[in-house]
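Consortium newsletter contribution from the modelling node. Members have asked for a concrete example of what our holo predictions look like. Here is one, prepared for the ribulose-5-phosphate complex that several groups have been discussing at recent meetings.
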Amino acid sequence: MSDRDHLKRAAAARAVEFVEPGMVLGLGTGSTAAFVIERLGQLVAQGLDVVGIPSSERTAEMARHLGIRLTTFAEHGRIDLTIDGADEVLRGSLDLVKGGGGALLREKIVAAASDRFIVVVDDEKLVDRLGQHVPVPVEVTQFGWQATAAALERLGGRPELRQAAGRPFATDGGNFIFDCRFASIDDPGRLECRLNMTVGVVDSGLFVGRSSAVVVASERGVDILKPGQGVR
Ligand code: 5RP
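And here is the predicted structure:
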């Protein structure tokens, strides 16, 4: 438990109010998304009929445990609504850095297939510049990771291979992650494109132009932000 958990829970509860019976839901990953799944589990136990596409094995396990029915892209080509967390949210555009939990690739696939993508955060995640508090996670193939690291340096990044239990962290898809610091991210869309054009990069944790809304919880209450405006 962290001292931000009551805020994460409040943002999650507000976001789940957008869920309607019969929806195909994208299920996010991370501690805030876990509160979303917990709340969905309660509603499913009360009779809500939804199916979910999980963005990680961790999330799939939690959803199954709570009785939330899971489905796949083989059965449903589109997702009605995805609710997921973020590591940073850029004020105004609502562009994101995600992937602190290592699920960025599946999270981006799920977000891209969603009619609506709602992000849940506490107010500490709002920033004036992406990369202010966290590096940008970049998922890369294991093969040639050293060459990909050199290419990321040529893009102006300082890549650090993510570790877990004394060895390189491997994603659900078996890839590695570089946590990559950039001196200044002036144009997140341009950086996202340049990263995706780098051979060996599978995807990055920059989510540009994808947020439909961000539900932000602070000690003052819960706000719903839309791209380009701040709307309650
Ligand atoms: C996982 C993610 C998470 O959404 C992000 O790291 C935020 O996590 P938390 O809600 O635990 O702060 O992108 O890959």
